Amino acid sequence: METIAFVTSNALKLQDVKAILEDNVAFKFIHYDIALPELQASPDEISMNKCVTAATILQGPVVVEDTSLSCPSLNGLPGPYIKTFLAHIGLEGVARLLVSFPDKTAEARSTFAYTAGPNQPVKLFTGSMHGKIIMPHATNGVAGMHWGYIFQPDGHAVCYASLDKTKKNKISHRYKALIQLKDYLINNNVKK
């Protein structure tokens, strides 16, 4: 089984990736908790920069993931800056940004970036999930600052964070992107 570094300082991402890939036998992700610099750019550019930086640090094959939450009414914001928005104005503050807009729709997007190592091309794999922004409620089980407490996926009556983990991991933006990455790695016989 081939090993690839999965670089993230986000424990939730790590849990999701492990759950989604639990039946994978072709390769194994080895977790590295490295806080990578966040380039102020598009989601694809951020993912590529993080991947190149991590490959340079670890001198081997690397996978990174970046998540964004974009609202058409806000011209795509908060987008890849959702973590910063939440840190400064919180869940309710992000939800309140849309109060005066009739369109509360949003897109959660996950971009995985893979490279075989330093100075190698970076491949991107993207998945998205559509829904709307809702106000956080005590009944949503708000226990943290994750945007999943204010995002309600299309076709569901509860916020993303309240979905059963097994169900969530079969419909999520992360699942869709990760399956593309998994297929690429398997179909291209990626070797360390």
UniProtKB/TrEMBL annotation:
- Report if keyword Cell inner membrane is assigned: no
What family is this protein classified in?
Answer: Belongs to the HAM1 NTPase family.
Work out whether the entry's keyword set contains Glycoprotein: no
Which terms are listed as keywords in the entry?
A: Cytoplasm, Hydrolase, Magnesium, Metal-binding, Nucleotide metabolism, Nucleotide-binding
The UniProt entry's GO biological process terms, in alphabetical order, are: nucleoside triphosphate catabolic process; nucleotide metabolic process
For this chain, one GO molecular function annotation is: nucleotide binding
Compartments annotated for it: namely: Cytoplasm
This chain's protein is named: DITP/XTP pyrophosphatase
Q: What is its EC number?
A: 3.6.1.66
Gene Ontology CC entries for this record:
cytoplasm
